[in-house]
# Entry
Amino acid sequence: MRPVSEKGAKEKATMDAVAQLQRQLVDYTASLFHEGYLDDQFNQLRQLQDESNPDFVVEVVTLYFEDSERLLNELTKALQQQSIDFKKVDAQVHQFKGSSSSIGAQRVQKVCIAFRNCCEEQNIEGCNIFLQQVKHEYTLVKSKLETLFKLDQQILAARVDPGSHVIRFLQA
Amino acid sequence: MNVSKKTVTGDGTNNSATGNRISVLVVDDDPIIRTIHKALLRRSGMEVEVAADGQQAVNLHRMGASYNLVFMDMEMPVMDGPQATRELREMGVESMIVGVTSRDLDSDIQAFMAAGLNYCFVKPLTIEKVIPLIEELTGNI
# Structure
């Protein structure tokens, strides 16, 4: 049996680190589904990511973050008006519900549904409560997705570390 | 309104006679939905163009573009899905037009169908929804 070289030991250590990160990523992702932050639509997005589209999930979710921030600002302004245009508010919540559902942000989507009921009833107090709730859920899912992407980036960085030689093992 | 030249004038690649690939137009005002549906449909082997509202979809056809399949969002600014569908049918467009909506009211869906749709789906599209359409289109080509 060949003695373990220093190079071999280093390779093994990096592979172990990558394997641990991968386990962390799998566990963290599973928890997000389990706790209802994400639903199957997020998996549909992951399935669309491939070599020709390697950053697809991050790109779509980034679009969602930009769009959401704009929508939430508009919603806040609309509900601060002297005379609230409930039809406009409803349309904006509908849009937010749609984009949240398209990336699988399940909890945000659910709050939007309840929010729209208050719009239909022209219930100002209810609308304000749900605005806070939807902002809260959005902030939560945003931070969790950012954690997910960071983990993913760490794995990617570990794989392409030129000192590790791991790239030869992990590339298909 | 940010309209890319390619989107308004078409680029000549969406002639259904080119090759065997199904050509698709995705019409939706939501850039997230456009991105997701474009990736999904390209993955399924189709050639995809996008338009941001019904008016752009109509303009593309007026300028001579044609598609095997059009996915039409219901609610859009400038010109909505039902209106764009009516106009396309009046122009003689016989492509398969599939409505895509986040509305789940039966009356809304029926009104949209009546504008001239072949089918109407709830957003977002998934591969399961798209496969039967591909089968129908490739059966006819």
